[in-house]
Amino acid sequence: SLNGKRIIEDEVLPVKPSFTILITDPSGITINTAKLILEFDDQKIDQTNFTINKTSDQTSVILIEYTPEIESGNHTLRLVAHDLNGNKTDKSVHFIVAEPDELISIANHPNPFRDNTIIAYFLSNEALEIKMSIYTVSGRLIKTMEFYNEQGYIEHNWNGENEFGDKMANGVYYLRFSAKFPEKQISRILKMARLQ
């Protein structure tokens, strides 16, 4: 998992991910740490570069934590573990690391929407400030939303109202998304439609 969320195959991850690997067995685990192998892109990782946490009151759970420095691109993390009885598990996950300070995707759903729409985006690195400004087709600003210190997959709701709480009429609206990073600023335009 990454930050408490299970990693799905070919998921886009931030530049400095912190992995948590959970090994469980309801009947109890006694890991042979000499045979525990963690590989990153087919290269074995020295055990001094990750931590193995096990406690006497939780003999059915072992946690491994690994925080690598990763370049952008496609990667694979693999774990091979044996218990003292010779039972073995071998699991791999493939993932993608994005360029720093990059907006991977932005969309809203549903689109068109009736009452509410979710604006979802993915940031590969922590943005200091996020600003979303919603405009009519004529260019009139009707709503501004600001957020701070966001990273990864984010969702925010827009209820189709302006700054004064008035429901907006049916029609097309434009969202100007901007994200400010320590090194640069990026912006995108998203087209949204409201239909009752």
3D structure, described in words:
It contains no helices and 13 strands. The protein is an all-beta fold and 196 residues long. The protein has a 5-stranded mixed β-sheet, with no helix packed on it.
Summary?
The chain has no helices and 13 strands.
How much of the sequence lies in strands comes to: over 45%
Task: Report the major sheet.
Answer: 5 strands, mixed
Alpha-carbon distance between the two ends: 40 Å
The percent of residues in helical segments reads: under 10%
Structural topology:
Elements: E1 11-13, E2 19-24, E3 37-40, E4 43-44, E5 51-55, E6 58-66, E7 73-82, E8 88-97, E9 103-109, E10 117-136, E11 141-158, E12 171-180, E13 185-194
Parallel strand pairs: 1-8
Antiparallel strand pairs: 2-6, 3-4, 3-7, 5-6, 7-8, 9-10, 10-11, 10-12, 12-13
List keywords for this structure.
single chain, 196 residues, mainly beta, five-stranded mixed β-sheet, 13 strands
